[in-house]
Write a structure and sequence with these properties.
The complex is a heterodimer of chains A (about 400) and B (about 70). In chain A, strand 2, helix 3 and strand 3 form a beta-alpha-beta unit. The radius of gyration of chain A is 29 Å and the shape is elongated. In chain A, the strands form 3 sheets. In chain A, strands 1-2-3-5-4 form a 5-stranded mixed beta sheet, sandwiched between helices. By secondary structure, chain A is an alpha/beta fold. The relative contact order of chain A is 0.07. By secondary structure, chain B is of the alpha+beta class. Chain B contains 2 helices and 4 strands. Chain B has one domain: Alpha-Beta Plaits (2-Layer Sandwich). In chain B, strands 1-4 form a two-stranded antiparallel ribbon. Classes of the chains: A alpha/beta (about 400), B alpha+beta (about 70). Chains A and B meet through helix 17 of A and helix 1 and helix 2 of B.
Chain lengths: ~400, ~70
């Protein structure tokens, strides 16, 4: 999905429209108001029409600069932006949700305006621009391959190298008279202020973590207070991540579900298709219970579930939900070993997925995650093996 | 945010106070308030909040900080 960043080159041409002289002709006043006469629509984007290109909905117009026309973006998100945000949050098309890297402007920026640096993930870009109404600034979008600032900084695409390169290709020296860049604080993982100064002459100023604090940061003489400098992980911030967590769990879950149905077929008659269905279904629901507990409930209730270890949080949440599930839906005909198997299976799935969520949080370290995984992967594997054994045993 | 914590004593963060030039950039870039300035030197005030993101290491002008999480 490549979109044109700028269409400014035909700006001058289209302003040279044919003008029909009306001198000497008297237009009757009533003619102008006749509703049946369609009036010439004057959409603001028309001036930038160019064959084979389409103007991006977030671009209002273009501003001429010493380095050519630069698109000016709108701070207001449209219904389409919000709809795509919804889909991306659900994990659909989130790896190709990009905008063209390069320089943009917002408000009416001039040679002294600040330069804000961001990533080319459209969700990030939208997040930034919606906080910038009333602000006049340049926005330098780096090519992070459609990844957000923090992850891209960790992966090395939001980097000193890319920033130096993007400053050059955008001819930033011709556009601003100063040598300052404002970077999102979470970009610091990938950028070295010292190297930037050395390689490009630009001084890096680290802005706040969150885009919503930018207006206050700018007003405050470009200083961020303590709360602006720290990451948060509120209920909403955790909740909004869960659709992607569930979505990512679905593919492996499908394989597991197949295995579960297959395993359920084993019984006294070696293999029975009625077993696949009759015994497979409760096992399948035990899996669903585990997924909901590990990929939804644990992330949402994270700080309220005891233990610091995510795997343990998953076990605790999984236990509660497995018990509820068994009380309401599992037939007693499975016997004690069958019920044990379903319980253990559900809790194991919950524990594994909860541990998986460490990768989405802003407070776990790679060393911590490694330590936890070394401890709990064997436990979870044991849970899986024991529950499978019990499940087969319970069929006899 | 202070209540959201993972395991203690796992971070590989090391600060060498002798190399610190006192610029304070680590206190700016750390998103977990691990550092504080004290008598013109940075010091670690919340070691267990560190998530080894490397922002401080990357921006320290005198290579006074290091983190070395194993790969994976």
């Amino acid at each position: 999905m490549k979109q044109a960043q700028g269409l400014g080159c035909n700006e001058a041409a289209s302003q040279n429209r044919l003008k029909i002289s009306t001198s000497g002709v008297t237009i009757m006043g009533s003619m102008e108001d006749r509703p049946s006469c369609p009036s010439e629509p004057d959409k603001p984007g028309n001036a930038y029409e160019k064959q084979g290109y389409r103007l991006c909905s977030y671009v209002g117009r273009f501003i001429p600069t010493d380095a050519g026309p630069v698109p000016l973006i709108k701070p207001k998100l449209t219904k389409d932006d919000l709809l795509s945000t919804f889909f991306v949050r659900c994990g659909m098309g989130r790896y190709s949700y990009t905008i063209a890297p390069g320089l943009y402007g917002i408000g009416i920026p001039d040679k002294n305006s600040e330069v804000l640096v961001t990533a080319n993930f459209k969700l990030t870009f939208d997040h930034l621009r919606k906080e910038l109404s009333g602000i006049h600034a340049w926005i330098l979008v780096l090519d992070t391959k459609g990844i957000n600032v923090w992850c891209a900084a960790g992966k090395g695409t939001f980097s000193t190298r890319e920033l130096v390169k993007r400053i050059k290709t955008s001819s930033l020296e011709k556009i601003v008279d100063h040598k300052r860049l404002i970077l999102p604080q979470l970009g610091a993982t990938g950028v070295s202020a010292k190297e930037m100064k050395k390689q490009s002459g630009f001084r890096v100023i680290y802005g706040p973590v969150r885009a919503k604090d930018i207006p206050a940061f700018l007003k405050n003489n470009k200083t961020a207070d303590k709360t602006m400098r720290q990451v948060t992980f509120s209920l909403y911030e955790r909740f909004i991540l869960t659709p992607v967590e569930i979505r990512m769990a679905l593919k492996p879950a499908l394989m597991v579900a197949l295995a579960v149905f297959l395993l359920s077929g084993f019984g006294p008659g070696i293999f029975s298709f009625s077993g696949v269905w009759d015994r497979g279904l409760p096992a399948f629901f035990a899996l669903i219970t585990g997924i909901l507990s590990g990929a939804f409930v644990t992330p949402v209730l994270l700080p309220h579930i005891p233990s610091r270890q995510f795997a343990v949080k998953g076990i605790l949440s999984g236990t509660v939900f497995a018990v509820i599930f068994l009380l309401f839906s599992a037939p007693a005909s499975h016997g004690i070993s069958g019920l044990m198997a379903l319980f253990l299976f559900s809790v194991t799935v919950s524990s594994y997925l909860a541990m998986n969520f460490t990768g989405a949080t802003p407070f776990t370290s790679p060393s911590g995650v490694e330590k936890e995984m070394k401890r709990f992967i064997p436990v979870q594997l044991a849970g899986l093996v024991i529950s499978s054994g019990l499940w087969i045993y319970s069929a006899f | 945010m202070k209540e959201l914590r993972h395991l203690d004593d796992v971070s590989t963060l090391v600060l060498d106070p002798d190399k610190c030039v006192g610029c304070g950039l680590c206190t700016e870039v750390c998103p977990r308030a691990v550092f504080e300035m004290h008598q013109n030197k940075a010091r670690i005030v919340d070691f267990n909040a560190c998530m080894e993101c490397g922002a401080c290491v990357n921006n320290c002008p005198s290579e006074a900080i290091s983190v070395n999480p194993g790969v994976g």
